[in-house]
Design a protein that fits this description.
The complex is a heterodimer of chains A (338) and B (325). By secondary structure, chain A is mainly α. Chain A is built from 13 helices and 4 strands. The chains are: A mainly alpha (338), B mainly alpha (325). At the A-B interface, α1, α6, α7, α11 and α12 of A face α5, α6, α10 and α12 of B.
């Protein structure tokens, strides 16, 4: 078990190096000049070259990548210029480890950018997760127990609809009608949870519902399929023969066994969402990580794009690892060998 | 296996004739009314998409002509109810330009389906070839391909699609010497196709791992069949079921991805109609003229739903373990 975990952690680290390295190559060694995007209007050759030097784009890609990795572990200064540091220390921005870079268009470190965006994405992900797990697993269990009858048809039917509606379409409808036209809920705007939990929740309810609609659908299908499978196992019949109560059988014997695939899917989906829900955040103009990423792409803010790819893939890879490790604890049949 | 034999025995008791797997599948499909209806709808959409360019040449639909007399007032909204529905403009007109919305949706269907089908072809071809090679070769080759699959799957797909769009579309435009629209279409096909293959390669690899131990492969090998013959003549015919299911299930995903990216302002852009470009434009009028996003949105939903249902139906019909109750 211990060796298994060590090995997985190592492979996560290697994977993240490969991903950031590839992203770096794609964006900084591509056919387009990265410095061009840092100076928009009134661009002169002097400013362009100044920016190129200040941001280190004049150096070979591997040196830039080396600096990026160094920044992740020990931090960096922008611009990295010893003479300037001695003469005007106030013009240097220090970015402590784990430094993800510097955003030239907004003039701040990416860590600062992430620090403001991350709570928004976290709030959206957590709330949506709770709602879709309750609807998804609950609906799936009910559908499996009432198999073939009208509750099953109703639940499976609505799951199919939820599965096929594009995220932005649900979001746009929820934003246009309940929020703007009818005024039932506030037009979403992020307020910190610590400020007022009620305002926080009422502003986030629409993004939550949007994501929950999409995700609950696949959890209903998943839970239903696995519940039907486990409820036909012999040990369920044994439990019934022993005279255990219906709900004890459903929860302790049925759902417990169906939990492994559900936890897998839940871990991976939550991991993906923590890196920002791009479409939902764009529809509701919530300034989370997904919105930051889209904005970076629109402005071709390359360092931010690379940092966002790193963050999102880190969440995906780490969630993958945690799910695999969790297997060993949830499912007694799984033995993790190093 | 036990389940299959039981079911076959039961079927055999009803009508004592041997049935090929294809006959079983067909009879299951014919009994599945939902899938049949969905298939009808999906075929209708495909036909509509295929003949849309012809309809445009015959002037039956007209997605590009502006009708400024049909829009007016603040923000140039369509005059009349529900986005200006009339006998000549079945789904109303576009705010601003007054172009016929029905024509634009039908023409958009062509672009969206074309891109999605081509991307699905790229994913399925790559996935099948790599899956077969990885499954039969085993050892180091298999290890390498599996790591590559893990690697591609770890990339944040939507983010990469969006991030790469600007750079790659620019590069394609100059490399192929084409306009923005075809360059964006090629980009969508290549990149969506590229991110689609790894999960399918995994499925195929799993199938091949069990298939390659079967006697007919052994027999072919002992008769001196070459590697290519084993790949394409022996293994490939046994893989058509997952290929069919995956192709139908990846189609709606691609259609939805194209629309989502277009909505975000990436990929195919106006005036070329596609679900993405229409919906992207409609956002500006979401409050003033909701019909403008609801009609294309509902059409998009119906297309995705129809393909999803067909894919689900195929999967159930082809699954030997599927319960027929």
């Amino acid at each position: 078990m211990f060796y298994y975990i060590v090995r997985r952690v190592l492979s996560v680290v290697i994977m993240l190096f490969l991903i950031t390295g590839t992203t770096f190559l794609l964006f900084f060694a591509g056919p387009s000049d990265p410095a061009r995007y840092t100076c928009a209007r009134n661009c002169t050759t002097a400013i362009l070259e100044g920016n190129r030097k200040a941001l280190g784009y004049d150096q070979p890609v591997y040196v830039q990548y080396g600096k990026f990795v160094e920044g992740l572990f020990v931090g960096r200064d922008f611009p990295d210029n010893a003479a300037l540091r001695a003469a005007h220390p106030e013009q240097i921005v220090h970015c402590p480890a784990p430094c993800m870079g510097y955003s030239p268009t907004t003039n701040q470190t990416i860590n600062a950018l992430v620090a403001t965006a991350w709570p928004v994405s976290l709030s959206i992900a957590i709330g949506a997760f709770v709602i879709w797990m309750i609807i998804g697993v609950g609906g799936g269990v009910i559908a499996a127990l009432k198999r073939g009858r009208w509750p099953d048809r109703l639940i499976v039917g609505s799951a199919l609809i939820g599965f096929s509606v594009p995220t932005f379409f649900i979001g746009l409808i929820l934003l246009t009608f309940p929020a703007i036209k009818w005024g039932w809920v506030p037009i979403p705007h992020y307020f910190p949870f610590t400020q007022n939990p009620l305002t926080w929740a009422s502003n986030l309810i629409l993004p939550w519902l949007t994501l929950a609609c999409i995700f609950a659908a696949s959890y209903i299908r998943l839970t239903r399929a696995y519940m039907i499978e486990t409820m036909s196992e012999d040990y369920i019949r044994t439990a019934m023969a022993k005279g255990q109560t219906k709900w004890r059988i459903i929860l302790r014997h049925g759902l417990r066994a169906a939990l492994t695939p559900i936890v897998t899917a839940a871990g991976l989906d939550l991991g993906g969402l923590l890196g920002g829900a791009i479409i939902t955040e764009s529809v509701f103009s919530m300034h989370g990580l997904g919105w930051t990423a889209i904005n970076a792409v629109i402005n071709m803010n390359l360092p931010v794009i690379v940092a966002m790819v790193l963050i999102v893939s880190a969440f995906i890879v780490i969630a993958n690892m945690l799910v695999d490790i969790a297997y060993g604890f949830i499912d007694p049949r799984v033995k993790l060998v190093g | 296996m036990a389940e299959t034999t039981l079911e076959e025995a039961r079927d055999g008791a009803v009508a004592i004739v041997g049935r090929t797997p294809w006959q079983i599948t067909r009879s299951r499909l014919l009994r599945d009314k939902v899938t049949l209806i969905a298939m009808g709808v999906a075929i209708l959409f495909v036909i509509l998409a295929a003949i849309a360019p012809l309809l445009t040449t015959w002037k039956l639909i007209d997605p590009y002509t502006s009708h400024t007399d049909l829009v007016g007032g603040l923000g140039s909204l369509p005059t009349g109810n529900l986005g200006g529905i009339s006998s000549t403009h079945w789904l109303g007109v576009e705010p601003g330009t007054g172009r016929d919305l029905f024509s634009r949706i039908v023409s958009g269907l062509t672009v969206s389906l074309l891109v999605s089908v081509c991307a699905a072809l790229v994913s399925v071809t790559l996935g099948t070839i790599i899956g077969i090679i990885s499954g039969t070769a085993g050892g180091r080759v298999d290890w390498l391909f599996s790591r590559v699959i893990d690697f591609v799957l770890s990339f944040p797909q939507t983010l990469m699609l969006i991030a790469l769009s600007t750079i790659v579309i620019d590069a394609l435009e100059s490399a192929l010497n084409v306009a923005r629209t075809p360059a964006s279409m090629v980009f969508m096909i290549i990149v969506m196709g590229f991110f689609g293959w790894p999960s399918f390669a995994r499925i195929i690899r799993g199938q091949v791992l069990s298939l390659k131990e079967r006697e007919f492969v052994e027999a072919a090998r002992s008769l001196g069949a070459g590697r290519m013959r084993i790949y394409f003549k022996e293994l490939l015919p046994h893989l058509w079921a997952p290929i069919l299911v995956y192709s139908t299930l990846i189609m709606p995903q691609n259609i939805a991805t194209e629309a989502a990216l277009g909505f975000l302002g990436v990929g195919i852009q106006a005036p070329t109609p596609s679900f993405g470009s229409i919906l992207n434009d409609s956002v500006h009028y979401a409050i003033a003229d909701p019909a403008y996003f609801i009609f294309p949105g509902v059409t998009l939903f119906l297309v995705v739903l129809a393909f999803n249902l067909v894919g689900d139906g195929f999967r159930d019909a082809l699954d030997p373990k599927a319960d027929r109750q």
